Amino acid sequence: MEKVNKLKEQELKFVKMKTLKLGLVLILSVCMIVVMDSCKKCKGEDPSARIINNGTDKASVQIKTSGGFTVNINNVDPGTASPYSSYAPGEITFTITVNDNEYVKTVEMSQCYKYDIAIDSDNNITSTAIDRNK
């Protein structure tokens, strides 16, 4: 009988140790997930964009957002950039006017990204997406 009790006691200790180890692994896993998620700089924020005028003349920009709203940024001097402005995610259309000529660039904008919309001296428009979490 004493041997049986010792065996049961050892089994109980083994089960307790196994449960304790499993609990510790679970707690550490949850902590790692929380820490990794909290490292993100952006948590579902709307995208933002700015206009960089690398051209030779002033540029004005009309921005049509995915919600149908229109924002105007007028007279961005050559060699300068507008401040960043936020928009709802989705398809955004930038109509840039330089010397009465219109140039259009449509960009699919996603949350947690900022975008540099640049116009060069040949009036080519480029878009660069920058992940805010990096």
Question: Would you give an account of this structure?
Answer:
The chain is an alpha+beta fold. The protein folds into 2 domains: 1-39; 48-131, Immunoglobulin-like, CATH 2.60.40. Helices cover 28% and strands 41% of the residues. It contains 1 helix and 9 strands. The strands form 2 sheets. Strands 1, 4, 5, 8 and 9 form a 5-stranded mixed β-sheet that branches. A 4-stranded antiparallel β-sheet has the order 3-2-6-7, with no helix packed on it. It starts with a helix and ends with a strand.
Keywords:
2 domains, 134 residues, alpha+beta, Immunoglobulin-like, four-stranded antiparallel sheet, single chain, five-stranded mixed sheet, 1 helix
- The strand count comes to 9
CATH arch. level architecture of the largest domain: Sandwich
- Please state the CA-atom Rg, rounded to the nearest Å: 28 Å
Enter the CATH topology name of the largest domain. Answer: Immunoglobulin-like
Number of domains: 2
Poorly predicted segments: none
In terms of DSSP E residues, the strand content is: 35-45%
Order of helix and strand elements from N to C terminus: HEEEEEEEEE
State the name of the first-level CATH class of the largest domain.
Answer: Mainly Beta
> Approximately how much helix is present in the residues?
25-40%
Query: Largest beta sheet, briefly?
Result: 5 strands, mixed
> What structural class do you assign from the helix and strand content?
alpha+beta
